[in-house]
Structure formats: C-alpha cells, structure tokens
Amino acid sequence: MNDLFASTSHTPGVHIGIGGWTYVPWRGGTFYPAGLVQRRELEFASQQLTSIEINGTYYGTQKPHIYAGWRDATPEGFVFSAKAPKRIVTARKLAGTGGQVEDFIDGISHLGDRLGPLVWQFESGRTLDRDDLAAFLQLLPQQVNGRRQRHALEVRDPGCFDAELVALIRQHGIALVYTDSADYPNAADLSGDFVYARLMGSRDEHTTGYPAQELSEWAGRIRSWRKGADVADLPHLAAPLAPAAPREVFLYFISAAKHRNPSAACELQRLTDAN
pLDDT tens across 129-151, in order? Predict the structure, then answer.
C-alpha cells in the first residue's frame, strides 16, 4: 500500500461500511474522485471506510489469487465480510453441503487477516427445517488456517424467526443479523461476541442517506454494543442478555438509495469516532 489516499485512526472494534465497491454512480466525484481508475477503487474505498461486505460471493466465488489481491490492496486493520454462496444456502438439504462450505471457505481464506464474518443469508420464501439448520450450523468452522472465524445468520423465514432460533445460534456463538428493513423479519438479539447489522433504509433526500438524528441514534447503539450492552429500543425475539464483555460491531449500509450509502457510512463512522 502507498499513501496516496489519506487514512484515519478509527474506534477499535467498530467496522462500518457498504456493500461492494463497484458501482457506477459512485464514480466521478460522488464517492470516487474524478479520474480514479477502476482498478484502484477498492484501494480508495478501503482508506475511507473500515469494512466492506462482499456481496458478489453470493452469486459466484473467486479464485484464491483474486482474494489475495483484495487483501493486498487494503490497509492493515481493514476487514471484509462476505455473503455465502447461493448454491449453499438454497440447497434442499443444508446438512449435506459440508464439502461446498469447505471449498468456499478454503478459497476466501486467502483474504487472510482481512477476513471478517461470513454471512449465511436465507432468503424470503425459503422454509427452513430447524433440525436441518441445526445440523448445518455444526458444519461452520470456528477456525480457519489458525484464525478464529465468525459467522452471522440472516433468516427471512418468519416461521423460523423466533426465540428458539436465538437459543440455537447462541449455542454456536453465531450472530443474528439485524436489518432495519420493513420487508424482512428483524431482531437485534445478542448471540455472539460480535454484532452484525445491515441498514437498508437510506433515502435520496438525505445527503448522508439517513437524517442526522437517526445516524446519531445508530452511533449511540454502536457504543452500547461495543460496551457489551443490549439495545432495548430495537426489536427482540428472546429475553435480552445481561451486559457482558465488549462486542465487536460490523454495520453496513446496503441497497435502498445506494448512491448515498458511502456518505452514510462515512458520517456514521465520524460520529462513532467522535465519542
């Protein structure tokens, strides 16, 4: 890495970012500087943000050398999360996908210390068998190449979205993904030693995607999570946990008014760092 793009010290244990880094409306000065060549967009984005969720892995994985290139293009302390492949999470029998899980993780492990949580997202319309899901969670490795590996679960099946689900993932230290979308079930139950949130309500009329008051509220929630405390004003499926050890926080601005999401992430990061 060189010093072409300015880097700032950020709050430890807080990772705020966007989904992906290739998006035409972000070019020409909206987020990326005018004239910046596309091959340097990841380098630039990783100097402005503390994390990026890789969405493309849902549709197809990359060769190991591609992941290694992404690792080398980003600064120390930057972290990627990634969505697990569609072919795994849509399999008829999840418990039978062990080989596919291993192949996916073997490849993406070339991100090295830039690899953060893996997101296992089960889309709307997918009815989950709870026993099959429990067996599937047993397949997710707790370590990869000697490094601890974290997993987050996003369930959009209302029939499986309940206190029993929370109890199950707490057994494995897996985080329940929180979203603020009105289209999907959402809950902010704490279940691992980290929190994973996907904010999907950015609006075009706000330069920073969300109004200032809402971003300030999110900064406050991040501070609570970072201290290990539950956030009472968000929906829950089960009884809140007592305050515990500090939790790492991963929060991403996804979809909606996508052209606003980098500004939203940068502003929330600024608010978080200021306190």
Answer: 999 999 999 999 999 989 999 99
Distance set, CA 251 to CA 40, 135, 219 (Å): 24, 28, 11
H helices of the chain, in order, are: 41-48, 64-72, 86-89, 98-108, 130-137, 163-172, 212-226, 261-273
Type of residue numbered 71? R
217, amino acid identity:
E
Alpha-carbon span 150 to 128, nearest angstrom: 22
- Three-class secondary structure of residue 143 per DSSP: strand
Tell me what the mean pLDDT of segment 41-56 comes to: 97
Listed in sequence order, the residues at least 6 apart from 124 whose beta carbon sits closer than 8 Å to its beta carbon are 156, 157, 183, 184
Domain ranges of the chain: 14-273
* 67 close to 32: Cβ distance less than 8 angstroms: no
CB 53 within 8 A of CB 92: no
Distance separating alpha carbons of residues 262 and 54, to the nearest angstrom: 15
Bridge partners, 198 (sequence order): 179, 252
* CB 249 within 8 Å of CB 14: yes
The pTM of the full predicted model, rounded to 2 decimals, is 0.95
Q: Are 110 and 68 in contact (CB under 8 A)?
A: yes
* Architecture of the structural domain at 14-273: Alpha-Beta Barrel (3.20)
Tell me the Ramachandran region of residue 146: left when phi exceeds 0, alpha when psi lies from -120 to 50, beta otherwise.
left
